[in-house]
Amino acid sequence: MTSDPLRPLVDTLKTLAHPVRLRILALLHAGELCVCEVAEVLGLAPSTVSEHLTGLRRTGLVREWKVGRWVHVALADAAATAPLLEALWPLMAGAEADLARDRAQALALRCETCDPSACPPSRTPKEPA
To answer: Which residues are in the HTH arsR-type domain (predicted)?
Structure first.
């Protein structure tokens, strides 16, 4: 039995087929965030956000690392996922007003929900292109 060469793409597309995961990607398009900030913006429990992030991480769309006891996440730098993400942004334009509210709320938080001293000084989110 041979493995299906389309399986990674199918898994990635299945992962993208959820509104919460799309909102997370849109948030991270503006810059890295602490998981607690993502949870606050989405109004979800951190454990629920972590489950969504697990799928995004498994497909190579996001990366995460610890800063002290806080987990930070960002879009992956992987060349394999960059074309998919670049194709995704225009498709999400219909939800731009809601996504802009999410980004503004995340920017206003600035790690207030976690320990501000744990955040790197380069934590200024960039505006999406």
So the answer is: 1-95
